[in-house]
């Protein structure tokens, strides 16, 4: 089961793509973000909780398209609703279709901070709009930011003119460490009456490091600091929304922001996002703030989102994922402890992630590569630098197999110690 995979077609397509697309694939999907030479680069198809690459290798998909697949790939009920809209009504028109109102009212019923909302396409659309709304409402410029919020200039993981982002485009953004309330307090003192908003992921999901839950009092502290300084509190719920709770992490933790960005899981793979918030703040979009796109009103993604939400509620999908995720986490933590390999399991029960503890000799890098090399050879699709996900269509048999393969991969990696 540990033989190297046949990936001839995937590498052939990669070489072909290099001639027409910079890097062959965009961003985080490039080979260097996995274990080069071991992972597939092109998929052919997907169904339920599994994917098949262009060489015919089938994997249990625990990356779930980096989050959008909350139920499963190719959900017939969702796809059929979309197909019916295409055949019977159409979807790209000069005016908005009435499904917009139905979805908006449903979202308002679910999310605590939502009095009004706007529908968009990508997570970056929603977080970018949140900053624009916050600045317009407060008439202030500076932003305190923690975590990844998309590819908008100031949020980009790389800055500088060589990255196409001169300093003036991000100089008013100040990054702070998750769970460090004191650092936020200092930033407010240093920039008194200049900060428009705090934007934060309520559950921290950094690349290459373990998923981190908020400490008791942390979100409450951010809420208080924002209110005391006439700044808005923005949650980036792109990953947590419609996954940890139907109302997002704000519903689960009971700390309500002023604005929140949602996406990914709300459409089960269809490109949709939303910025929601209190009417007082959102109403700057009436006249003051420009927000427009030909494709924001596209009804197909709205139809998909309504059907996704219907299924999530009807089938109690989040309860199912929570239960399976807890059981999975318990097993993996036991395997890690038994193996003696210096790594950490985090993200339970929703976002499984195995990260390796840095050491001065950089052995952790070799351990990480070997572990994920062995894992992909055993047909478990996870990523070394990004947490995974558990979806509804992952059966108990799938997760049992995945846990066993993780145990085997840990034993192989241990040989490097």
What does this structure look like?
The chain has 417 residues and is an alpha/beta fold. The chain has two domains: 165 residues, Aspartate Aminotransferase, domain 1 (Alpha-Beta Complex); 239 residues, Aspartate Aminotransferase, domain 2 (3-Layer(aba) Sandwich), CATH 3.40.640.10. 37% of the residues lie in helices and 14% in strands. The strands form three sheets. The chain has a seven-stranded mixed beta sheet with strand order 4-10-9-8-7-5-6, sandwiched between helices. Strand 1 and strand 2 form a beta hairpin. Helix 10 runs parallel beside helix 12 and helix 11 crosses helix 12. The protein is globular. The model has no long low-confidence stretch (mean pLDDT 96).
Query: What CATH architecture label of the largest domain applies?
Result: 3-Layer(aba) Sandwich
What are the secondary-structure elements, in order, as H or E? HEEEHHEHEEHEHEHEEHHHEEHEH
Please outline the major beta sheet: 7 strands, mixed
Strand percentage lies at 5-15%
Mean pLDDT: 96
| Domains (count) | 2
Give the C-alpha Rg.
22 Å
Helical content class = 25-40%
What is this structure, in a nutshell?
By secondary structure, this protein is an alpha/beta fold. It is 37% helix and 14% strand. The protein has helices spanning 8-18, 76-88, 99-110, 123-138, 181-190, 218-228, 249-253, 279-282, 299-314, 317-339, 363-377, 396-414; strands spanning 43-47, 50-53, 58-61, 116-120, 142-146, 173-175, 195-200, 232-237, 259-262, 273-277, 343-346, 353-356, 380-381.
């Amino acid at each position: 089961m540990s033989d190297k995979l046949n990936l001839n077609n995937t590498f052939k397509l990669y070489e072909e793509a290099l001639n027409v697309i910079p890097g062959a694939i965009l961003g985080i999907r490039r080979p260097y973000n996995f274990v080069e030479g071991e992972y597939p680069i092109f998929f052919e198809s997907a169904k339920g909780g599994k994917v098949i690459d262009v060489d015919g290798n089938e994997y249990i998909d625990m990356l779930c398209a980096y989050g959008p697949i909350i139920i499963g790939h190719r959900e017939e009920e969702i796809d059929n609703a979309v197909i019916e809209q295409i055949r019977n009504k159409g979807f790209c028109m000069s005016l908005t279709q009435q499904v917009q109102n139905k979805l908006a009212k449903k979202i308002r019923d679910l999310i605590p901070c939502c009095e009004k909302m706007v529908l968009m396409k990508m997570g970056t659309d929603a977080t970018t709009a949140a900053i624009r709304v916050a600045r317009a409402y407060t008439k202030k410029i500076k932003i305190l930011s923690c975590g990844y919020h998309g590819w908008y200039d100031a949020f980009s993981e790389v800055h500088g003119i060589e990255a196409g982002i001169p300093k003036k485009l991000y100089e008013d953004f100040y990054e702070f460490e998750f769970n460090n309330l004191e650092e936020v307090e200092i930033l407010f003192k240093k920039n008194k009456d200049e900060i428009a908003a705090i934007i934060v992921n309520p559950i921290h999901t950094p690349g290459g490091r373990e998923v981190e839950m908020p400490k008791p009092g942390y979100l409450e502290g951010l809420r208080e600091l924002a209110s005391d300084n006439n700044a808005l509190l923005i949650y980036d719920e792109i990953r947590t929304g419609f996954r940890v709770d139907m109302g997002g992490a704000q519903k689960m933790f009971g700390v309500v922001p002023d604005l929140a960005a949602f996406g990914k899981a709300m459409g089960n793979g269809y490109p949709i996002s939303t910025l929601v918030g209190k009417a007082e703040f959102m109403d700057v979009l009436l006249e003051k703030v420009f927000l427009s796109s030909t494709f924001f009103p596209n009804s197909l993604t709205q139809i998909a989102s309504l059907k996704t939400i219907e299924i999530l509620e009807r089938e109690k999908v989040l309860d199912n994922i929570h239960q399976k995720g807890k059981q999975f986490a318990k097993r993996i933590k036991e395997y890690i402890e038994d193996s003696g390999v210096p790594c950490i399991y985090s993200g339970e029960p929703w976002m499984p992630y195995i990260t390796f503890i840095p050491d001065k000799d950089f052995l952790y890098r070799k351990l990480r590569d070997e572990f994920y090399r062995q894992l992909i050879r055993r047909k478990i699709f996870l990523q070394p630098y990004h947490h995974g996900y558990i979806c509804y269509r992952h059966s108990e048999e799938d997760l049992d197999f995945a846990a066993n393969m993780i145990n085997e991969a840990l034993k192989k990696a241990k040989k490097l110690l």
